[in-house]
């Protein structure tokens, strides 16, 4: 199996909404206000209105539940949904608040993007298996998304 970089996604976030402790953990909602994505075969903008309905478990790991819409430069709309795990999200946020964005791999931050589109030019995404790694930067998150290639 090989990984080929598909794109880098930069998603701007509004300040988090702390729902608080519930029966499954601490719920925190991050609304996406925009952003960009760029790769060899994909580029465009992240539309406002998506978000992450993160659940922080009893061990401090954030369980991601993200849904965003991508709009390519040529007008195609692509729905992207992904679960993931971000270890120690509070420490990551504290580093950013101190003016030190995290680098990829500095904390465990992994995702499993899945794409849906009806646009003929991008239907190949509907069958794609992808994996991503994330990092926290000031007011945003960034992901390197990779296509999983068998063999």
Specify the CATH class.
Mainly Beta
N-end to C-end Cα span:
5 Å
Number of domains: 1
What is the CATH-assigned architecture? Beta Barrel
Q: Would you tell me the structural class of the helices and strands?
A: mainly beta
Give the low-confidence spans. none
Q: What does the largest sheet look like? A: 11 strands, antiparallel
Q: How many DSSP-defined strands?
A: 11
What integer value in Å does the Rg equal? 15 Å
Number of helices: 1
Please summarize what this structure is.
By secondary structure, the protein is mostly beta strands. The protein is built from 1 helix and 11 strands.
Can you characterise this structure?
This protein is mainly β and 151 residues long. It has one domain (2-149): Porin. It has one helix spanning 89-97; strands at 2-13, 17-22, 25-38, 43-46, 51-56, 62-72, 77-86, 109-111, 114-116, 130-137, 140-149. Strands 1, 2, 3, 4, 5, 6, 7, 8, 9, 10 and 11 form an 11-stranded antiparallel sheet that branches. Strand 3 (25-38) and strand 4 (43-46) form a beta hairpin. The longest helix has 9 residues, at 89-97. The radius of gyration is 15 Å and the shape is globular. It starts with a strand and ends with a strand. The relative contact order is 0.21. The model has no long low-confidence stretch (mean pLDDT 94).
Keywords:
single chain; 151 residues; mainly beta; Porin; 11-stranded antiparallel beta sheet; 1 helix; 11 strands
How is the topology of this model organized?
Layout: E1 2-13, E2 17-22, E3 25-38, E4 43-46, E5 51-56, E6 62-72, E7 77-86, H1 89-97, E8 109-111, E9 114-116, E10 130-137, E11 140-149
């Amino acid at each position: 199996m090989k990984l080929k970089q598909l794109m880098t996604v930069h998603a701007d976030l509004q300040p988090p909404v702390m729902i608080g402790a519930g029966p499954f953990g601490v719920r925190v909602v991050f609304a996406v206000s925009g952003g960009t994505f760029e790769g060899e075969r994909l580029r465009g903008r992240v539309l406002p209105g998506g978000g992450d309905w993160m659940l922080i478990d009893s061990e401090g790991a954030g369980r991601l539940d993200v849904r965003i819409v991508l709009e390519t430069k040529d007008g195609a709309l692509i729905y992207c949904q992904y679960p993931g795990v971000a270890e120690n999200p509070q420490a990551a946020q504290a580093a950013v608040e101190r003016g030190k964005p995290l680098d990829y791999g500095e904390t465990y931050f992994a995702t499993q993007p899945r794409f849906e589109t009806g646009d003929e030019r991008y239907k190949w995404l509907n069958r794609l298996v992808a994996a991503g790694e994330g990092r926290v930067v000031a007011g945003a998150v960034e992901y390197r998304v990779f296509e999983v290639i068998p063999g």
